[in-house]
Design goal:
Keywords: Membrane, Transmembrane, Transmembrane helix. By secondary structure, the protein is mainly α. The chain is 74% helix and 1% strand.
Length: 492
């Protein structure tokens, strides 16, 4: 508790700086916008904004990018409830009961409950994050290179296991990402590696063109080729729920907050998994009363609280362990590297001001989101009538311009195009590119930890089994992979 308070106190000044407050507001507003618009999303948006972060201080950049992530969870509920077309994957769960409420003429109260439940989820998650970061960082600092390498392998295994792609395909994508991450100059030998005689690859493949292309531009291309026309929405009405509706939704929202906070701590977990778990818990309670499936506020409150809580506690594996829990965290890890900050336990120990500012900005950002969502819910509903194809075309042009302005390299633009086509092809094949991005992000630190472990062990590979913690982590990775294979192969 003392460590948490000290960290928050150190981050109080940066979090309340006017510039950072404006960046927080910009982040949550943009996150709400991309959550409202089906076809976009926080991963694509954060990837496209990576060039902008060069001009920002580390705290401001991370506060803004974090705001986009959890802001998108808020925005997704608008499309989920009004259209039954979620802007984010986790909105699928909210859509089930939320759209029934909208069709019954209660769209406004449903949107109000979604905003308030998300606020509760965000507050609970911020407290959990503050309390657990320091203990997790101490745990990770005690790791040697063998344990660190095994932990990273477990993180990749978890991401692969939770990927919707076939298991072998997901592992192949992770391996491809790792190979791409190893392109460049071998630090140990000083020789070019996988550069194929291309001088521009001597410094490796840039994270910005890869992330922007694979997630950002690829998603926009899909928006251009799919139905990007405006949609008709159900009438909203007043977003202020009645007291009895707030009272009835409080317990489900609290349960969803706790479930989401716990799931967000797991490497490889997602906001969709948190929302599904919260919905399953509430459905078990309400089914006995015969009310589920008829438009129940608990079916909005629980998943909305859970997905926002999971979005925020997913920062714990990244900041304390250096493990990106999902694609969004992998892009944020890249943003930290671009700022000269390596995610991991050293950040918590050496930069409590930065970590504390991020956590406090979540408290401020969630309050901003309620202020943006409740009074202006009609405005966000009107955004749905904008033609997405036009927006996507404009954003693609601006993104290419932003990449050119940040790097000044034509080669990076070609890389952007190549990865955009790869991301589009993977989407057409229904393969999730998240394992590729996580493999790319962890390739360099994994190689460093692996080499250090082998140097200390004089080339003896058995060091990974001789160390109890390393052996346990490798066993966990094997177990996760075996369970994923069993789940995919079992009938039904």
């Amino acid at each position: 508790m003392t460590e948490a308070l000290a960290m928050l106190y150190a981050g109080l000044g940066p979090a309340l700086e006017p510039a950072n407050l404006l960046l927080c507001l910009a982040g949550v507003a943009l996150g709400t916008l991309v959550g409202v618009l089906p076809g976009l999303g926080p991963v694509a948006t954060i990837a496209l904004l990576l060039p902008v972060t060069f001009a920002l201080p580390p705290a401001g950049a991370l506060i803004m990018l974090a705001g986009i992530y959890y802001g998108a969870q808020y925005g997704s509920s608008t499309t989920a409830i009004l259209l039954r077309v979620p802007g984010e994957a986790s909105g699928i769960v909210t859509a089930q009961e939320g759209h029934l409420l909208a069709r019954a003429g209660r769209a406004g109260p449903a949107l109000g409950i979604a905003a308030l439940a998300s606020l509760l989820g965000g507050l609970v998650a911020a407290v959990v994050l503050a309390l657990l970061l320091a203990p997790l960082a101490r745990f990770a600092i005690a790791f040697g290179p063998a344990e660190t390498a095994a932990l990273m392998l477990l993180g990749v295994a978890a991401a692969v296991a939770l990927s919707p792609a076939p298991l072998l395909a997901a592992w192949a994508l992770a391996a491809l990402g790792a190979l791409l991450g190893l392109v460049g100059t071998d630090v140990a030998g000083g020789r070019p590696r996988f550069t194929f005689g291309i001088p521009e690859l001597a410094d490796g493949i840039g994270f910005i063109p890869l992330a922007m292309g694979l997630f950002g531009v690829a998603e926009l291309i899909r928006a251009l080729e799919s139905g990007g026309a405006a949609r008709r929405t159900l009438p909203v009405g007043s977003p202020w729920p009645a007291r009895r509706e707030v009272a009835a939704a409080t317990a489900p929202a609290l349960r969803g907050s706790l479930i989401g906070s716990a799931i967000g701590l797991l490497p490889g977990a997602s906001t969709l998994l948190a929302a599904l778990a919260a919905q399953a818990a509430e459905r078990g309670l309400f089914r006995r009363r015969g009310r589920w499936g008829q438009g129940e506020m608990a079916g909005v409150a629980a998943p909305e609280a859970a997905n926002n809580a999971a979005a925020q506690t997913s920062f714990a594996p990244l900041l304390a362990l250096g493990l990106p829990a999902n694609a969004t965290m992998a892009v944020l890890a890249g943003a930290m590297f671009l700022q000269g900050i390596a995610p991991g336990p050293a950040v918590v120990a050496e930069r409590p001001d930065l970590v504390g500012a991020i956590i406090l900005s979540m408290l401020v950002g969630n309050a901003m989101l309620v202020a943006l969502n409740l009074p202006f819910v009609g405005l966000w509903a009107a955004v749905l009538r904008l033609p997405l194809r036009l927006l996507a075309a404009i954003v693609i042009v601006l993104s290419c311009g932003g990449l050119w302005a940040s790097s000044g390299s034509v080669f990076d633009l070609w890389l952007l195009l190549g990865f955009a086509l790869l991301g589009w092809a993977l989407a057409r094949a229904r393969l999730d590119p998240t394992p590729l991005l996580i493999g790319f992000t962890l390739a360099a630190p994994f190689e460093e930890a692996l080499r250090r472990a082998l140097v200390l062990a004089r080339g003896d590979w058995s060091v990974f089994l001789a160390e109890p913690a390393s052996a346990a982590l490798l066993a966990a990775a094997a177990t996760v992979t075996a369970l994923a294979a069993w789940m995919r192969c079992r009938p039904g």
